[in-house]
Amino acid sequence: MIRVDNLSVSYGAVKALRNVSLQASPGLITAVLGANGAGKTTLLRAISGLVTPQSGNILLGEKSLLRMPTENICRLGLAHVPEGRGVIAELTVEDNLRLGALASKVNLAEGLETQYAQFPALADRRKKYCATLSGGERQMLAMARALIAQPKVLLLDEPSLGLAPLVTSELMKLILQLCESENLTVILVEQNAKSALRIAHNAVVLHLGAVVASGDAKTVADDEDLRRYYLGLVE
Amino acid sequence: MHNIFGGLAQGVIYSLVALSLVIIWQSTHVLNFAQGAMAMLATYIGMTQIDRGIGYWWCLVISVVVGMVFGGVTERVLIRPLYGKPEINPIVVMVGFLGVIEAVATAIWTSTTRNIAAPFSQVFFQSHGNLVYLSPFIIFQVILAVVIMLLVAALFRFTKLGLQLRASALAPEVARLLGVRVNRMLTIGWILSAGVGAIAAVILASGSFGLFPTDMDGVFVAGFIAAAVGGLESPIGAIAGGLLIGLAEQFILAYWSPNVAPLGGIIILVVALMIRPQGIFTRTVGRRV
Predict the structure, then answer these.
(1) Which residue of chain A is at minimal alpha-carbon distance from B167?
(2) Which of B176, B285, B288 sits opposite A71 (nearest CB)?
(3) Domain-by-domain residue ranges, chain B?
(4) Is the ipTM, as predicted for this complex, more than 0.85?
(5) Overall pTM > 0.90
(6) What residues of B are in contact with residue A84 (Cβ under 8 Å)?
(7) Which CATH number fits domain B2-117+133-275: 1.10.3470, 2.60.40, 3.30.310, 1.25.40?
(8) Residue of B nearest to A50 (CA)
(9) Which chain B residue's Cα is nearest to A134?
């Protein structure tokens, strides 16, 4: 379970997050939605320790993640797939996966086998350099790399970015399936509100760094004003 | 004949410097322009221990260890504060540091050349009464360089540490997210690189001309060119580049003039840049997404 309490983050004079609070529970997908610049990516970066908040708290279970180095937060079972996926193009598919397994106590051979079974396209390309992968394949690799460490918490930053609608749809189904089967706590940041709300259990909408709506996904999705002003779901 | 073995011997020294640059590039994406001077200082410290009666091998070990410590401390103190700032900064700092190190070495040990008595004979072999210009020491040098190259290549290709080093240089933020202790990896990169560089200076000091505080400058330039020509990603390239430049210099020395010998390296560099600028042994590098 992840709890964010009154989190404020500034980049210099710019307030990226203002008193943001949210809660994400195991086995549930919490979608974080909003326009560009709303602070969604900053929120994830604060949770995984890449950015230091000015005030507020972040709790993983009972443990506060504030001031903990990113490397250690990862070892607590938190996996963050960053914006743009962060696939290391100069390494092979298998090297990227090996890297994902390094910090965990997972048996590498078993981990690789599991991920290759889940993502056969990656198995076919295991020795290839990642520069040759398509967008969808990179997304699969980024997911596999995060999952190989058997995390308890999964932070996903715009996984649908640059992907065709069909691929996005498959990806969302996969995220939901994994969330339920592994009992993961998933925080899903998306600009593609429609896709995200289809699989999310809870939703939080950010606007200019502040929370303007939160609750269960259906309520948030059905709210007329929200749809019009923040989610762009007007017909 | 003289040219070939002489060129190989000199080339090995360049190769080791090039190897140290490959290590530091693969681990940190920063190039240590003071590498030559640092190696020289470490070797001087090792050499002066000989006065206390230690043997050649201990001198080598001490030089390498001092070099490694020097590398690690330099990273922590001089380079660590520079991360996240313009990439030219570490280069400028290291070039300045180079001057400081040479001045310090000159002040402590005066400007006379020192050399170490090598454990392998430096007397050239003879074949049918003619000098073959190859000595046991040259054979030792070449074997040493090849062994180190194989170790470095194995480190980066097969080990967990090598993977973490590469990730720390290629994508430090992503590496952090995956639990890699990036700062530690960067320090380790500097330590390993400085260790290999120190070996180059020890070999130079073992030669007939010995070591002088500014000797490693020219060696560093040649080693740098070797790494650029061979490809900063490739340990094999470093060795090949180093030997090539050593040979080129020897031929120019023999057939043109000793003063123009360093030109050998420059000529190789220009030709390499014209034909294959990414380095002879580099795989085509992918774009980062």
Answers:
(1) A88
(2) B176
(3) 2-117+133-275
(4) yes
(5) no
(6) 289
(7) 1.10.3470
(8) B173
(9) B289
- Topology of domain A2-77+152-231, per CATH? Rossmann fold (3.40.50)
For residue A195, the one-letter residue type is S
CA–CA dist B172, A93 (Å, integer): 18
Which residues sit opposite A157 in a β-bridge? A189
Q: Looking at beta carbons, which residues of chain A come within 8 Å of B287?
A: 89, 131
Contacts of B170 in chain A (CB under 8 A): 88, 90-91
Tell me phi and psi for residue B167, to 5 degrees: -60, -40
Residue of B nearest to A128 (CA): B286
Task: Write down the domain spans for chain A.
Answer: 2-77+152-231, 87-151
Residue with tokens 């715009």: A158
CA distances from residue A146 to A31, A77, B42, B217 in whole angstroms, order as listed: 18, 10, 43, 46
Lookup result for tokens 């990179």: A138
Digits of tens for pLDDT over chain B (289 positions)? 566 888 888 899 999 999 999 999 999 988 899 999 999 999 988 888 877 777 888 889 999 999 999 999 999 999 999 988 888 888 899 999 999 999 998 888 876 666 777 777 777 776 666 666 778 888 888 899 999 999 999 999 999 999 999 999 999 999 999 999 999 999 999 999 999 999 999 988 887 677 788 888 889 989 999 998 887 888 888 899 899 888 888 888 777 777 777 777 788 888 888 887 776 666 655 444 4
Q: Which residue of A74, A80, A88 is in closest CB contact with B171?
A: A88
Hey, are the CB atoms on B175 and A99 less than 8 Å from each other? Answer: yes
Q: Which of A95, A129, A149 sits opposite B286 (nearest CB)?
A: A129
Q: In what order do the strands lie in the sheet with A210-216?
A: A78-81, A153-157, A185-190, A29-33, A202-207, A210-216
